[in-house]
Automatic annotation (TrEMBL):
GO terms for cellular component: plasma membrane. This is non-specific serine/threonine protein kinase. It is an enzyme of class 2 (transferase). Its EC number is 2.7.11.1. Residues 284-569 form the Protein kinase domain. It is a single-pass type I membrane protein. GO terms for molecular function: ATP binding; carbohydrate binding; protein serine/threonine kinase activity.
Length: 601
């Protein structure tokens, strides 16, 4: 007599006869009868276990001998030392459990340079045989990078060293730790102004090995290519100048530059002579330097009439060329709003290009927001006014100005503060204008600041009003918490600002996200409402985000707010970047992007 047991899609039969371990395996897999002397049991996990009644040892279990079904606690494996593996096999048909045409298994595809990496990266064996990193300077960072949560360059180095999947890392000031876990795609070395990247090598590879020779040869080829491109460009410029009439001198060429900026073309903007700006800034003295902008340093100056100015000096090697320079002048000259920085004029002399702005006494918002002492000067009431001012300035750009403008680089350091701490949006070098009914555009050159870029812009180059709204949402959460999006970590370091803001709103309504030093000055209702609005602005899908008019209405009214979805980045963990490839969760990917550059500012 036998009993039929159906488990995990297989039928098993139990019968009173003697059976050894080998026969048990064959009997179970072929649905044959089992025999006396053994007990067949099924725990809550679904693992079918055959136990010897005398010794109480396990003879056979279904988790070690998978069929066509995998339960939550069963696993695939490959035992390299004993050559054993665990695999799933398909049935021939729904009613025929014999071996089918498909199987799923883990294969031992590894090489000696990797299980070697693991040994050398362990804390017990670090020394002269440890993997090393070859530093390349002036490099355009490769595509397909991942953003890690390490707070300094040494932690970034140690994190990459301890993960054998990590092929390179770069620690960029103002951005953080970028790592690569595969091939380095679309890497170019420039003559200057690139980033520094550290490429993983075995210690023996710098001693004349084949791979070292390849790397050296590749680097040399890239350098030669860059030199050839630079030489060709200089030759082209020389030939272009040669075609000009011979009587054209330097003064005439400078006049030609100025003719591109006639007052009738740019009304309300003055042309400043270079000697005027040099005098005003004490020849660009370091003591007058206010900071480093995206395309060059900014200096404080004082004109002869006593008026204070801020001069942004664009270096000749800056990424912002004549096109971006013209764009910023013509764009800002047409924008007049109390929450936008005012452009007073410009200056051009040879290769020198400068933009002259009104001087903001209190500099930028980040100086106050992230300073342990200065942050107390902007209590919650002032921060709420700043949020409203930024939203009004953005509404003017998107809806109320003569041009529809997408800023593309809205961040806390681009919000300047006047003597009354009123916010003014600045730095329009990356801004784009829309024509007519156009509401969206795309670019193959993704330029902006990591953390503030919306998913559709970072991954596919699509930008619109909704991509600025995403940046505004990040800004709001930074202003509320007093924490940087790129530096924030909570608890075990795996939660970023978006994740923490989501949990705060979901669990307590969001009021506890406010900087704890400001709790005495806050309006709990306003704080919680602003946290919810910020989360609505950083929704993963652009269609789920409110437009600018709706955002301002939400901030300034008491109407009921929609319920936000959990931001997709909030569901990821920063430390997952350094887990194995089979378990990793990428928090940032540009897999859908080709020939693009993400430049931190």
């Amino acid at each position: 007599m036998c009993t039929r047991l159906l488990l995990c899609g297989h039928a098993y039969y139990i019968q009173s006869n003697s059976l050894n371990k080998e026969d048990a395996h064959e009997a179970i897999n072929s649905s044959s009868p089992l025999s006396i002397g053994q007990t067949l049991s099924s725990p809550d996990t679904g693992n079918l276990v055959l136990i010897d009644d005398v010794s109480r040892t396990t003879i056979w279990e279904s988790f070690e001998n998978l069929g066509n079904t995998m339960l939550p606690q069963s696993t695939l494996m490959y035992d390299l030392s004993h050559g054993k593996k665990r695999e799933l096999t398909s049935w021939k048909s729904y009613s025929d459990p014999s071996l089918g045409n498909f199987s799923l298994e883990i294969t031992p595809q590894f090489d000696e340079s990797y299980l070697s990496c693991q040994a050398k990266s362990s804390t017990k064996t670090q020394g002269r045989d440890t993997d090393i990193f070859y530093r390349m300077t002036n490099v355009k960072t490769p595509d397909l990078h991942q953003f890690a949560s390490f707070l300094d360059a040494d932690m970034c180095y140690q994190g990459c060293l301890g993960n054998c999947s990590c092929t390179a890392f770069a620690y960029i000031s103002g951005i953080g730790c970028l790592v690569w876990n595969g091939k380095l795609v679309d890497t170019v070395q420039f003559m200057s102004n690139g980033e520094t990247i550290s490429i993983r090598l075995a210690s023996s590879e710098l001693a004349g090995s084949h791979r070292t020779k390849i790397i050296v040869a590749t680097t040399a080829c890239l350098s030669i290519f860059a030199i050839l491109v630079f030489t060709a460009f200089m030759f082209w410029r020389y030939r272009a100048k040669q075609k000009e009439p011979t009587h054209v001198g330097i003064n005439t060429l400078q006049n030609a530059w100025k003719n591109d900026f006639e007052p009738q073309d740019i009304s309300g903007v003055n042309f400043f002579e270079m000697h005027t700006i040099r005098t005003a800034t004490d020849n660009f003295s370091s003591s007058n330097k206010l900071g480093q902008g995206g395309f060059g340093p900014v200096y404080k100056g004082k004109l002869l009439d006593g008026k204070e100015i801020a001069a942004k000096r664009l270096s000749s090697s800056s990424d912002q060329g004549t096109g971006e320079f013209l764009n910023e002048i013509r764009l800002i000259s047409k924008l007049q709003h109390r929450n936008l920085v005012r452009l007073l004029g410009y200056c051009i002399e040879g290769e020198e290009k400068l933009l002259i702005y009104e001087f903001m006494v209190n500099k930028s918002l980040d100086i106050f927001l992230f300073d342990s002492t200065l942050k107390l000067e902007i209590d919650w009431a002032k921060r709420f006014e700043i949020i409203q001012g930024i939203a009004r300035g953005l509404l003017y750009l998107h809806r109320d100005s003569r041009l529809r403008v997408i800023h593309r680089d809205l961040k806390v350091s681009n919000i300047l503060l006047d003597e009354k701490m009123n916010p003014k949006i600045s730095d329009f070098g990356l801004a784009r204008m829309f024509q007519g009914t156009q509401y969206q555009d795309n670019t193959r050159r993704v330029v902006g600041t990591l953390g503030y870029m919306s998913p559709e812009y970072a991954w596919a180059g699509l930008f619109s009003e909704k991509s600025d709204i995403y940046s505004l949402g990040v800004l709001m959460l930074e202003i509320i918490s007093g924490k940087k999006i790129s530096r924030f970590s909570f608890g075990d370091g795996s939660k970023g600002l978006l994740a923490y803001a989501w949990e705060s709103w979901f669990e307590t309504g969001g009021a506890d996200l406010l900087d704890q030093d400001l709790t005495d000055s806050c309006n709990i209702y306003e704080v919680a409402r602003c946290v919810q609005i910020g989360l609505l602005c950083v929704q993963h899908e652009a269609s789920d985000r409110p437009n600018t008019l709706q955002v301002l209405s939400m901030i300034t009214s008491t109407t009921e707010l929609p319920t936000p979805k959990q931001p997709i980045f909030a569901a990821q963990t920063l430390n997952d970047v350094f887990t194995s490839e089979s378990e990793s969760k990428h928090i940032f990917s540009v897999n859908d992007l080709t020939q693009s550059v993400i430049q931190g500012r």
